[in-house]
Amino acid sequence: MNGKPLPDFLLVEDPRQSQRAVFVGMVVVRPAVTAWAEPVLSAEGQPQLPPVALCSNFAGLDGGAFLAQASPLDAWRLALQYGVADAVLVGSRTVEREGVSSAQRSGYRWQPYEPVAWPQLRESGAALLEIIAATRRRWQDMGVLSSRRWPAQIIVSESGSPGAIDWLQAEICRAEHPDGSAVETHVLSSTRGASRVRERLQQQGLEQRVRVLEASSPEQPEHLDLRRVPELLRRELDLRIVNHDGGRTLHAAFVRAGVLSQLQLTLMRGASVRDLVAAAPVDDLLRSRWLSEFESRAQRYFSDAREWSNHVRPLQVLDDEAGETVVIGLDLRALREL
Fold first, then answer.
1. Of 58, 60, 5, whose CA–CA distance to 28 is shortest?
2. pLDDT tens, 79-113?
3. Domain boundaries in the chain?
């Protein structure tokens, strides 16, 4: 990280003025099959994203951790964004996949103390948490954040139905923070979906632990109206900055609704996703199957990143000493009109 912590990320919308929750997207991507090392900014100062498919996930090796390959800059960016937000929003499928504990791992919590405990940051974890806490207090003093010590967790499920694994079994629905306080967790759903979630919470004894919020129009009770969400979250929960830790589908839905105004993109570029899969520490039979199914397993975020290049404005560009990790802040507001 060039010996320097990642600075505050810039906001394109000030929640003190808009009086609604401001959504900041975040995602880690890597070229699908071709590594890319060209300059990120063109001579005109525009983001010059790779003219290749970029992936945000690979089924079977799910999650940004696989794509980031223990990048300390990405881990720090993630911890900082969690730490200077009133809430972190994730889709129910992601919660199902990453948030439910299993015999292999503990369920993930979208909190700043999670990334700083990873091996790449562990030695400086306590100091980094204090930097994040100090930044949070400063943002609170400015009125940009609420008085919460820890970000709330928001699970998005339009239908309110469980998946193959019940996402209400996630750690964030039951866990405590290091200080012993309960993790604040909410479910955002449609009117019909909210009714299903409340019934399930009652069955599991979680009705006092998890709050359900609904955002539908009277005409479409099965549909989650994202346009209503920023005002709803500000009015009901005093959420001012919400980090949107979703994938392409959920990000795109929020962009179309005019809600997601910026994106903190971490571009990993020294190797392709195919290269990583080929070198994955698994048995040869499984690796061979994954490679043969690569096209169906590699989940594209950009089919061709140039599709966005003429419609986004760079806010910040930071990289590590090796040039493998590049964090790009992007203003997405022009995408609403596409």
1. 58
2. 999 999 999 999 999 999 899 999 888 999 999 99
3. 19-86+241-338
